[in-house]
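Model it.
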Amino acid sequence: MTNKPRYRQIADTLRERVQRGELKPGDALPTESALQEEFAVSRVTVRQALKQLTQEAIIESIQGSGSYVKEERVNYDIYQLTSFYEKLADRNVDTHSDVRVFEAIDASLELAATLEVAEGAKIWHVKRVRFIKQKPVTLEETWMPLALFPDLTWEVMENSKYHFIEQVKKLVIDRSEQEIVPIMPNAEMASLLSLDASQPILEKISRGFLSDGRVFEYSRNAFKSDDYKFTLVAKRRP
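Modeled.
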């Protein structure tokens, strides 16, 4: 007979299901109501069990969606210029993008200098949330010269931007100059990524260049730091 509190017993049972593979990374846990019924306990007890598993980083809660078995962090190799979809190709997981803003705007003085276009030139402004399964992991805001991509569409940005540039436009992407900084999430980031607004996150600021030297994008990406790990290889000069 165990002396463990009931919520700990429930947490142990759910943890064992994950360890045995009955619940796999990314799988949704049963609803709180279903767990209440299965274990014949109160909602408070179920929530205590889920809180413990969350603290152990075994599960995570997504606002308005439920609890999920936590997946391995996405490895973001800074030296590999790959798209969101390419980074996840070997994971065999469902991904999609939710485009929140798609508009043509006049380039401000600052954006014009960054994109190397004339002030007031038309540029695309796109904001999208990137998902792994049903979990939001990245908020991306991008500006691109409209003259380079007059046929850019909402549908393109729901999928792979790099595929469009390379396979449809037949342009050659050369490099991306990137800066990674810690920031405090604003209200929009916290809402769209289900973040704790009091915890710092990582932002990647990048400028992409084509092989002919033209700037094709300027982007700011906010990452959920518990879903990503950033790696690089540093070599010591002789």
